[in-house]
Amino acid sequence: MKLASKENFQKFRHTIFRRILHAYLFCLVATGIVAAARGDFIETYDDGTDVGLWHCSLGVPRIIEASGGNPGAYLQQGGFSTSIPTWGSVSTRFQPGVNDPYKIDSIYTGDWTTLGVTSIAVDLNVIQVATWATDRAVTRELLQMDETGFNVNYDATYTLPDLPNPPVGWQTYSFPVDANSSTIPEGWVFTHGDGTPGTDAEWSPFLHRVDLTSIGFYKPGFAYPSLGTWILGIDNIEIDFQAAPTPTPTPTPTVTPSSTPTPTARPTPTVRPRPTPRPRPVPGGNPR
Question: pLDDT digit string (tens) for 44-70?
């Protein structure tokens, strides 16, 4: 009787052990699949790379400082005047033929939908303030140009809360993107180049080709003074992505330019008030 009980216990223990082992192996495989499906790229400048050629102005030097970042090396640009201090990474499809040493095709532009971009974050430092204003905030902007590269197909902005005072030291700013979303993610203002609202069906096709990514200290629709000079720092530019089934893209409409086309004027969107039109924060359009 005791021998039979002992044998039954051994069988029970072996069965439980096998089940636990199978569950453990399943968790390892599942974790590996999730890890393989997710990824990120971070430009830290610590290894001397300069992938996105981020810049605020075409008229002053860009300097990769070896220390003083968050932490380590960082990119600094200063000695320029502008009303909307903005960092931008621009693809070669933006205004082709126009002399611009900072156009480059990188992970910060291009096909975000196929890549499955989920978010983008960055560390910024306002080292020297030119002129601040109570209506400033941090805004992320994405542009898709038409086939000529001189007219805007789509424009998307995401603005964080107001900054009544200049931020002190390094600050991290994060923005959800969700390039595979079937709807416009909450918080984004998404329009065509003529200012008319974009649709849910156009969100993912728009992100199949991003031609300009920028982040700056301004709110869309507000005017600011342009006095004094800025010194800005940028570090840890992170883009997170997760491969997912790519939605079937709808045809990308081409905006017919008016008799005096210009991508720098934005009609007031319907999503939030914009009392004063502003020039677009296109790095090539910043004062030199």
Answer: 999 999 999 999 999 999 999 999 999
